[in-house]
Design goal:
Blueprint lengths: L1 H22 L6 H26 L3 H25 L1
Helix pairs in contact: 1-2, 1-3, 2-3
Length: 84
């Protein structure tokens, strides 16, 4: 189960880094930056919370905390690939 939690945590961090990379786009206005910054913060909080829960042996809570954003991110990726 720990491997699955680490996979979900890494998906959360990779998506947060991708969104941070999108912030560097010069065409972003202030509203676009704000709309990208909130999911980055939430993803990093979920990843950190899952790591904290896992280190305190609350594995199921850690899995839920890290898997929900990871599932949403993978589903959005699936919809994006399916559309093109």
């Amino acid at each position: 189960m720990a491997i699955l939690i680490w996979i979900c945590i890494s998906i959360d961090v990779v998506v947060a880094l991708f969104l941070l990379g999108m912030l560097a786009n010069p065409d972003q206005d202030a509203a676009g930056e704000a709309m990208l910054l909130l999911p980055v913060v939430l993803l990093l909080v979920c990843a950190g919370g899952a790591w904290l829960l896992m280190s305190r042996n609350h594995r199921i809570a850690a899995l839920v905390t890290s898997a929900v954003p990871a599932i949403v991110a993978v589903y959005l990726l699936f919809l994006t690939i399916k559309k093109s």
